[in-house]
Amino acid sequence: MTVHAPEKSESGLAPAANPRKRYSFPSWFGPWELSLLGLVIIVILLGSSSSPYFATPENFAITAAAAVGLSLMVVPMAWLMIAEEIDLSIASVFGLSGVVFGLSIEGGLPLPLAILSAIAVGAIAGLINGFLTVDIGLPSLVVTVGTLALFRGIAFILLESRSVSDLPLEFTSFAQGNVGMTLIPNGFVLFLVVAIVAGILLARGSVGRKTYAVGSSVAASRFSGVRVKKVKRGLFIFSGSIAAVAGVMYSGYVSSARANNGTGLELSVIAIVLIGGVSMYGGKGSFIGVMLSLLLVTTLTSWMTLGYVTTNIQYTVIGLLMIGAVVVPVLVGKVRDLVQRRRAQP
Amino acid sequence: MSTLNATRKAPQHPSSKPTGRLRRLFEQRETSLVLVLAGLVVFFSLMSSRFASVANAGQIVTDMSIVVIVGIGVAMVLFTRNIDVSTGSMVGLTAFFAADFAAKNPGLPLIFVVLASCLLGAFLGAINGALVATLKVPSIMVTLGTLYIFRGVDSALAGANQVTAQNLSPAYNQIASWTLFGFPGIFIYALVIAAIAHVFIRHTYSGRSMLALGSNPSAAEKMGIASKRWVFGAFVLSGVLSGFAGVLWGARYGTVDSSVATGFELVVLAAVVVGGVSVNGGNGTILGVLVGAAILSVISIGLALLNVSQFWLQAIQGLVIIAAIIFDIVIRRRVEGKGKRS
Amino acid sequence: MTVTQEEPRPVASRGELLVSVTGLVKRFGGVTAIRDGSIDLYRGEVHALLGENGAGKSTLVNILAGIVRPDSGTITVRGDEVTIGSPRFSRGLGISVVHQHPVVFPDLTVAENIMFADAPPHNRARLLDWKKVEINALRAMKRLDVVLDTHELVKNLSSADQQLLEIVKALSDDTELLILDEPTAALSKREVTSLMEVIARLKASGVAILFVGHRLDEVFALADRVTVSRDGTTIVSGPVAEFTPESAVTYMVGRRLDSVFPKVTVEPGEVHLQVKNLTRRGSYEDVNFSVRKGQIVGLAGLVGAGRTEIARGIFGLDRIDSGEILVGGIPIRVTAPDVAMKHGIAYVPEDRTREGVILDQSIQFNLSLAVIDTLTRFGLISGTRDRDLSQSFIGRLGIRTSGPTQEVAALSGGNQQKVVLAKWLSTNPEILILDDPTKGVDVGAKSEVYRIVSEMAKQGLTIVLISNELEELLAVSDRIITFYRGVQGAEFTQRPFDAEKVLASMTRQVNDVHA
After folding, report:
1. Which of B204, C4, C233, C255 has its CA 20 to 30 A from that of C31?
2. In this structure, what is the dihedral angle of CA atoms C391, C396, C402, C408, given to the nearest 10 degrees?
3. How many domains does chain B contain in total?
4. What is the ipTM of this complex?
5. CB distance from C365 to chain A under 8 Å?
6. Which element (helix H / strand E) includes C272?
7. C129 and C276 housed in the same domain
8. Which strand (E) or helix (H) includes residue A203?
9. Range of the domain at C142
10. Looking at the partner chain, which of C104, C126, C130 has a beta carbon nearest the beta carbon of B216?
11. Residues C357, C419: contact at Cβ < 8 Å?
12. Domain assignment present for C448
């Protein structure tokens, strides 16, 4: 028989560090985030040049206030998608909680209780999503299509086509007002608080670390003692609760709680998270990126609105951005493979 | 996992004994669906005298037809383990295009309008297919994006305009409303398409390949099945059928503007999922799509006749979807559990 | 079925050279699966390909099957050089492959699955001729005397039946080379015997057979010729008479381990981990053993013997049907990994890249994951403590890396495994279960891993070592317990161990024997 000695296999050394030291981005602000920032700057420049009203504090105030619902919902959606889940029912919870809020006010409940019951409903909705996804094991994508219809449907059953416009003055003036004498909308401040806390927890909290772990590899996380089910369930409840807060705030902002508030908003929320660089496969993406993406989409929308572009076309632009956001990584990957293959050939 | 110690009996499975066939018939999803449909029909007939009438049957059948046509396309995509949520916008866009095209060319034989609409649909589907099949982008993301994009194009095309029944030739309006043995034409179209689709899926190698592909994509690669081709084809088919549905929409509803079929993708998805087509691919029948659409139509029309406020409809649709998915997964798990115990 | 050869195999049935492979190279991205592969397959001969996981066996199979194309090398079939570009082409050459994991379509019927393996029969209208599909399926099954319900959906079949279906699919009238990739993994003894008979029949009819396997007893009973691969290179090849199971294992594993790593004797303390009558239906039955502090108990067995399942049960990943686990004399109920961790149990899993580490994340991320909650204040992770933890372990374990923020995917197998070890050591465990800790790790890092394990034993940890590398088990363990198909075999308590006796116990069922 013939015997060969194998070549000395890899010595266990790490790949030699690049001789030319490349500038490496910090993990929370990479090339993707930089590109988003660049796009934001471009849009702001283009917007200011095309309309005198664009780069004004008033426009900022109006845009920020109107986007309070969207902005708030982006926060938990980012967490969920990093954990490789999704909640398509978020906008329906948004609407349903607004309805519950309105009906509670109509029913004579004091304001704080009305708000709490709306948030409670949101949390329960999240619990239902979590239960169906995590405990029964249904794919969140399909389950939340069902709950999207169910929760919106319940909203319609409760309030039909009416609206509750008789909301307490103190609340509506808060929801529509600004901080002190400034032009900063109260809703924006609320969003900032939520976003900052959530962002810090995601980037540096142990719950954030676990979220990334679960999104990268459920198996390895489980093997490391992470309670995967608990984490995911918690994320869905978080999503429902924040959607409820957003729904209540929005009802206050437009002075009207309706069952169809926020219809279709879930798609914008998801688009923003994807454009923000969160991978559809979970485990990757920075909160800063999502915030930049939110900024990009809202300034873009504002620019288009000032330019009298119809809502549908605005949605088209967002759709294009979203497809771009998911296609670009694939293309970059392919280019990288090609380059690697060419380099490997002697 | 091998067994311990115990000597196992050699697997003795007699090929297709009649009891085996009967058991499989009962295990099939379609059987329970038909029973559910029958149950619902009986229920509503008992609750409302107007339900069990010929006119109402015509209503139900008309209502479900467009859902069936688009649903068959979506089912094909689901068979390959993908999803298409852009159908609402595809139908809306092709509906306006077809109606506008026909209104502006009154002398043109309608067959050209239909072909043009289907071609447009094919093109839209091809965009979806190309992104999913070649770039391997998850279909949910692609079709969510195109849902937006196609709607935007529709908006740009239509602007604030409308095409109404008056603009269209009587022949156009008649596309859907002719009857055969009392069945409305639109239903005949649905049945014919369903029949062709059924033969394709059940009795051709290509059809079985699509199901195989969704059942086990990696195995399909290993066995040399041309996955990209079928995935692309499924999306194109979904587009073509949406295009055809677009023509029918104008004929049925009379008025076409840029908001046509908004949210329709959800109705179609519901019907298909209820009909037993699994989102995991590899599973489902055309009959299932028919029965699923029928169930949803019966529920919606039945509830309307019972004067249940229309506002209950969406919630019930949601519940039905969730129930269908749970049923699907639970059955699948029980079956797989039985098999794996060796 | 014994391990040693009972009669010499007649060399006369050698036949002509059918397929010859030389100089094969295959890289996947940065990983070299095959460095220098070669094999000669003769008609009427069963050729066994042995090697550990990562030796390149499955890649060779995939190349011959046309699923993967080699970077360089020559393949000749019947004397002509060929490029196997697709599965269909491979089949056209007369090569049939039975894959390790059934390549089936669960939602389709048995008959349809068989249909996909070959060209489908069409009737005049370009529609499928179902009668012919049925007839073809029955004929295919007849070749092997297998009886399955052709109308049954494959997902309803047991995994053993699915494996049989795989084999049925693979064979056709034109098969000249049959490749079997670990075909017996899911089969019972009786089914394995039937398979052996089929292989014998095929051999007699002149078919060349390539058998990739792990179970040395089956391999040595069947094979005429043996080839051993290690780390992607073909090490040795020759008639089966020139091998013994021990020498085969030696070729598979490499140098004798005691020359690389000396065993350190530790005075064992009290019994810390005890397992009584542990049973999980379908995986293992009536397992009993105890491990003392400072002791290393090795669990020996062939792949599929149930050892990993036992470890998973102790760690709370799978349910246990009956039996007890005692830690420090106290029975515990482990419902989830974090519960096991609270009792001081740590588990270094078998599948490093899927279960041990998160490849896309940094060393720091991975290392601190098991103890992340202890590094926090008010829920926020202390960056310094996180980094310090990683730095200290990088130093302690000698992990070769450019820093804690380097992605684990960029590390070599050995260093990845050190990250996993570090992660578990950071939990300050009392019980450490290691499942194949040096799989896919090069020789240098192997000895370092065992140095660390030895260090842990000295510190009084209770260690359970599961390994498929017999040489290492023999060198490192204080006691060895063998398992076969989920049933506990003998316990060997005296060092140095008799390798032949251990191997014999591992490869067949033996009643409780103390040797």
Report:
1. C255
2. -90
3. 1
4. 0.84
5. yes
6. strand C271-280
7. no
8. helix A186-204
9. 104-171
10. C104
11. yes
12. yes
